[in-house]
């Protein structure tokens, strides 16, 4: 049964690759990175505070929807830049003689890592909105910092007796 | 089908494509000749036909391996970098198949060393499918555009192999119950493939060559790409956090 599945999977993969069309070269045209200040403006807390102070639920909802759309557009522009960079690398590598498979794997992993980050952040923005997503990421940051400090303290306290023993 | 094969060979000779793809046209000539021989055998005796059928099928699979290699070679010759990666991509399915063979050999030595003709053909076609998957993945990954001739060769052969592998596996698993489907699907796949080859190889068209302006120092280019990706990743998180 496993054998049959492997054969059917191979056929399916072949047919899938057969109908896979590479994106047009024009997509590789430089899109330009959106300004980081633009995102700061989209997520400006004073705007959110002002809209909240109006106490108009419909307006507040519209505001959040709009900011979510803008935040996702900003994230997508970054993804387009990463995709362009990756495509440029692959185009350049095609003719290079001294290609290293390990380096190619590293580049592919860097792109995959970017895409994972992108998917996670876009998912978070879609799910909880850009303001809460920002708060969650800040929380993760501070938790990461606290964990790092804690592990440093643990390492220091574990290392202290050992060094004392060495000195003794 | 023989008429279509004849047309394919005639156009190949007329357009001098035979020189460019000698293995492929050799394969086409072999299929045409073997089908004529098999027709003669079918008139003589059923047993002779059966032996002749499986023998010719086995040889056509071996020829098919050569065709796959010719496609790989003609596509990737202008791309030395991709060719180098291709060797790795091709080595992987070969090692996987070799590993499976060794495991099976330890498990059931008699069955592995004396497989049925159907199983042998299925396994060889599976190997070809692995090679074609590797070639198609490389083309998609490095965005290599193909000329009309080699594209028709590759796509036609891929379609044929995909359907053959699936039908052989189902024939092997389901037995005689699948025979009526097999009798229809196999010739149909072959006819569609022949149609694709005929259309694609009707006129001679040179392969698209890569633009030479992108030759750069590989190591630094790769490091720049990795650093660029890391910067963009940090930017994503920073943008939303701000």
Can you walk me through this structure?
The complex is a heterodimer of chains A (168) and B (242). Chain A is mainly alpha-helical. Chain A is built from six helices and no strands. Chain A has a domain at 27-135. In chain A, α3 runs antiparallel to α4, α4 (57-93) packs antiparallel against α5 and α5 (101-128) crosses α6. Chain A is extended and about 60 Å long. Residues 162-168 of chain A have low confidence and may be disordered. By secondary structure, chain B is mainly α. Chain B has one domain (2-206). The radius of gyration of chain B is 22 Å and the shape is globular.
Q: What are the SSEs and their pairings?
A:
The complex is a heterodimer of chains A (168) and B (242).
Chain A (H helix, E strand, L loop, with lengths): L1 H18 L16 H7 L2 H10 L2 H37 L7 H28 L1 H38 L1
Helix pairs in contact in A: 3-4, 4-5, 5-6
Chain B lengths: L1 H13 L2 H4 L1 H23 L1 H31 L3 H28 L1 H5 L3 H25 L6 H27 L4 H22 L17 H24 L1
